[in-house]
Amino acid sequence: MKYSTQILLFVFFLVVGFTGYLTYQIFMNEQDIVQSNIVFSINNTALSRTSSLKLPITNFAVLSEEDIVKLINDKIFKPSILLEKIYLAEVNTNKGNPVLAGWSSWNGWNGLLSKVFGLYMDWLGKGSKMQKFSAQTIKDFSPYYDIKKCDLSKVVYGYAPRLAKKLNSPHLGITDGYKIMYGDEDYVKTFSAVNKITDLSDGEVYWMAHELTHCEQYAGNRDKYAVRWFNELFDYASAGFVSDFWKAIKKAIWTMDFDPVITVLTPENLAKYDDNMPLEKEAYEKGMKVVGEVSKIRAQEQTKIEFKPSLFNTTTIKTLVPVKITP
Question: Domain map of the chain by residue range?
Answer without folding.
Answer: 2-96, 126-237+273-306
